[in-house]
Every structure is written in structure tokens, then in C-alpha cells.
Fold this protein.
Amino acid sequence: MRTQVGIIGAGPAGLLLSHLLRRSGIDSVIVESRSRADIEGTIRAGVLEQWLVDVIDELGLGARMHAEGHFHTGITLQFSGERHHLDIEELTGGKKVTVYAQHEVIKDLVTARLAQGGAIHFEVTDVAPQGIDSARPSIRFRTKEGVLETLDCDFIAGCDGFHGPCRQAIPAAIRTEYQKIYPFGWLGVLVEAPPSWHELIYANHDKGFSLLSTRSETVQRLYVQCPPQDDLADWSDDRVWSELHERLATKTPWTLTEGKIFQKNIVGLRSFVCETMQHGRLFLAGDSAHIVPPTGAKGLNLAAADVLILSRALDAFYKSDTSDLLNSYSQTCLKRIWKAERFSWYMTTMLHKNPDESSFEQRIHLADLDYVVHSHAACLAIAENYVGLPL
Ligand code: RFL
Ligand code: PHB
């Protein structure tokens, strides 16, 4: 087997990269350890930055996103029982907040790629990037049927998420990892109910953070801050609703519409950056190189930004025979990644109740929130980061 770019992982990063490369006339093959049904059914992110919506449109893949996605003009910040609308659209000169679930993006990208005749090998095992120091790297893997294959390529894109093998393939001596683990997690639920509010609510409460998001006219996505080691069994539906009602309550009357909870999960929150993101002919993109806590809605968007930058560099390599953009890939990505790390850490710190912080720090976060909603400059800073810094 031979291709120009071998892609490990069919998450948002790997799939979008294969589409961007196709637009440039560059051949790629994806190997993915999970099944198609599994990647299309995993519930994760919800918010797309405006530039990503535009890229999906340019690729001709936006029809379902426009039909089924939700396009909000802003977000709501809630604290001390009061809500404040941040008019993102006005603050950013017309950019919207698009709510369209990650697994729906995945479905659209997979369907289109397969319809174009693109190669995606699902349910592979024993995946190993090889020869990354040489000009002839390859990916070794075992197919679903158990056949050992070698995919020869010019470049390998490590789009294999946080737990994949690609980051480890960069020698530890030239890799620096930065990490922060937060002492809290998010319990997320999917609920059969109509929307209770016209946009996302990020709520700071003495009992902990909560987030109200949406999926459709009939399905809502809600999160409550919880200890990261909590057991799902300790979170009965009644307890989830009771916490949500309390944390999202306002001084003025408002109703949170309940419904059947049909999915529940707990994730721990972490910040992580791996420097460098490239070694020889291996390029890391997305969660394989960095993680942000979800409070800034940045993870999927960062993964997409990496592969846009990588596709431009590969395009320059094949069309103009220059490696300059490839050589500066890591540096270009990391400049923007660190700013998204800062924003995600800032939103997380300001909005959560941290059991390790003093009451002084908790009051500082309330002062920060009060400043944000009453200062044009502070609102603008949140808005321009929330919609995504320029690429
Ligand atoms: P993914 O999505 O993890 O995909 C990696 C793929 O690689 C496969 N893989 C392998 N394949 C072959 N061989 C191996 N050895 C392999 N090992 C792994 C995996 O099966 C998988 O299919 O990484 P990618 O593409 O970098 O995408 C990153 C995003 O998925 C992630 O950052 C976001 O979901 C984060 N995130 C959010 N991001 C946003 O931009 N906006 C949001 O609103 C948002 N909300 C969230 C989030 C993440 C959350 N969780 C679950 C942590 C909300 C939550 C609750
Ligand atoms: C979601 O809808 O899942 C979502 C929205 C905003 C975030 C994180 C997750 O910041």
C-alpha cells in the first residue's frame, strides 16, 4: 500500500485533513482503531468557530450543518443568580456561535470521504508509525480481517487523539510536555426536552459550575461540575436535575424544562501541551499534541486549525517544492495553541468552584465576571477568543 500522506486517526483532525488534502490534489489514507459506528456515536464537543464553519462550507460539506445546526448571536454568562448576554456577533463584526455536535461533523466528513472513494480503514490494530526519521516513513497496522499491512507514505499525520501512539513516537529527549490537571470534572447529560434558553449559559455558582447547551429542538446537552473521581452510579437522574435547577436558578422567574436523560458521562478536566509537534516526517495534530478543558469550547476547533495549517504546508511542499511551512509547522501551531490554552484555563478558573482555592480567590472570580460583563474591553477580549483567534 502506498499514499502521499498516511493519517492515523479518524477524529475531526484526521478526517478534515483528508478533505483538505483532497482539495489540494494530495492523496491520503486513514487508519482508525474504532468502528465507524463507534466514532459516529461518541458524544463530545458542540461548538464550532466561525472560520471552521466557513471551511466546512468551502469544502461543500455544510448542507446538514446549516439545516440542523444552531446559530447563536452570543452566549450567556451567569453568576450571583443573574444572567448577562455577551453579544458575540456584534462584538466580533458578525461572527456567530455555531452549535453542531462533533459526531454530526464526523458523520458528514466520513460519508463525504467514502462517497469520494477515499480510503478509511476502520477497526485496525497494532498501529505503529515507522521510519519517521527517514524520507520513506510507513504505518504498520493489522486490518480488521487480521492481515498485517504496511502503508508507505511521504508523511505521517498523527491525528490519533490523546491516548494514541504517535506522540510517544517522538523521542522523549526532544519532547517537552506541559500539563495541569484540575481538581474537578464535568458530568454531561443528553436530555429529551425542548431548549430552555435561546443560547448557551455558562454559570458560576457556589455549588459549582454548570453549562446549558443544546443539540436540537428536542435534545439538550447539560453539564454539572463534579469531583473527577465521582462514580456515575452516585448521580441519579433526580440528583442531576436537583443540581441543575439549583445552579441555573435566577432571581427572575425561569424554568429549566426537564426530560428523559438518555446519556450520562463524567470527564476529568486537563490542560496539556506537547512541544514539539513534529519530528522528521511525523506531524502531530489535535488532541495528540494538546488538550484544553472544555469550558472555552476550543478542543475540536484547535484540532481543525492544526490540520488547516498542515494542509497549507503540504500543499506548498507538493506544489512549490518548498519545506519552509512544514519546517515551521510546530512553531506556527503552538503560538495560537498557547493562546487557546490560556483562554480555556482562564474561563475554567473563573467559572468553576475550585476546592483547593480560598474564599478570597472565589470572590476574585466574581469580581472578574462582574468586570467582564460591565467592561466593553473585557467583553471584547472574551468574544474574540471565543470565536477563535486569526489563523
Ligand atoms: P479525537 O477526536 O480523539 O480522535 C482521535 C482518533 O484517533 C483514533 N485512534 C487511533 N487510530 C488508529 N490507531 C491508534 N492506535 C489510535 N488511537 C486512537 C481514535 O479512535 C479517534 O477516533 O482527536 P482529534 O481528531 O484531535 O479531535 C479532538 C476533539 O475530539 C476534542 O478536542 C474535542 O472533543 C474537545 N471538546 C470540545 N472541543 C470544541 O472545540 N468545542 C467544544 O464545545 C468541546 N466540548 C470537548 C467538549 C470534549 C469533551 N470531552 C469528552 C473531553 C466537551 C467534552 C465533554
Ligand atoms: C457542548 O455543547 O457540548 C459544549 C458547549 C460549550 C462548551 C463545551 C461543550 O464550552
In short: The pocket of P-hydroxybenzoic acid (ligand 2) is lined by residues 45-47, 200, 213, 221, 294-295, 297 (CB under 6 Å). The radius of gyration is 21 Å.
